[in-house]
């Protein structure tokens, strides 16, 4: 990506998403990120915050921030830095691409947080393979019903 879009080699952008049961608010999250005094671009968002900077510094900030509430603070990559005109809602108008996906994911975060608090051992049974003859029989039955 070009320097014009605030993306230099070795830099990343991560979204920090507060789950519905998080122990901190969005404004507290942003304040704590600023108090780390790391060389990051920090943008407050409706779901938490977005941070941009050198990869190892971004990872360090995420580690520290997740320590505050490890079961309710989530992160994911964002392919564009804050304010990038190709994705910034301020330049384009309306909800940004991916917002509705994030909204859907957000609705599941309480379940994920609960699972992180109370992990259970899960075993998955592998389905048995069916024979080719059985498969052909199923196909013939389905075609016969049409």
User: Oligomerization state of this entry?
Assistant: single chain
Number of domains: 1
From N to C, what is the helix and strand string?
EHEEHEHHHH
What's the helical proportion of residues? 25-40%
C-alpha-based Rg, rounded: 22 Å
> What is the number of strand segments?
4
Mass-distribution shape = elongated
What do these coordinates show?
The protein is of the alpha+beta class and 146 residues long. The protein has one domain: Alpha-Beta Plaits (2-Layer Sandwich). It is built from 6 helices and 4 strands. The longest helix has 14 residues, at 132-145. The N and C termini lie far apart (53 Å).
Topology:
Elements: E1 11-18, H1 26-35, E2 41-45, E3 48-54, H2 55-66, E4 73-78, H3 89-92, H4 99-106, H5 109-117, H6 132-145
Antiparallel strand pairs: 1-3, 1-4, 2-3
Based on the model shown, name its key terms.
single chain; 146 residues; alpha+beta; 4-stranded antiparallel β-sheet; 4 strands; elongated; disordered N terminus
Could you give a quick summary of the protein structure above?
This protein has 146 residues and is of the alpha+beta class.
């Amino acid at each position: 990506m070009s320097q014009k879009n605030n993306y230099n080699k070795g830099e990343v952008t991560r979204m920090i998403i507060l789950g519905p049961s998080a122990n901190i608010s969005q404004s507290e999250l942003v304040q704590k990120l600023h108090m780390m005094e790391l060389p990051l671009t920090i943008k407050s968002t409706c779901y938490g915050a977005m941070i941009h900077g050198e990869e190892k510094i971004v990872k360090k900030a995420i580690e520290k921030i997740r320590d505050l509430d490890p079961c309710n603070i989530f992160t994911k990559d964002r392919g564009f830095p804050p304010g990038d005109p190709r994705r910034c809602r301020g330049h384009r108008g309306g909800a940004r691409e991916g917002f509705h996906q994030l909204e859907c994911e957000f609705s599941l975060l309480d379940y994920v947080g609960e699972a992180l608090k109370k992990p259970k051992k899960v075993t998955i049974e592998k389905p048995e393979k069916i024979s080719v003859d059985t498969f052909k029989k199923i196909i013939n039955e389905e075609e016969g019903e049409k």
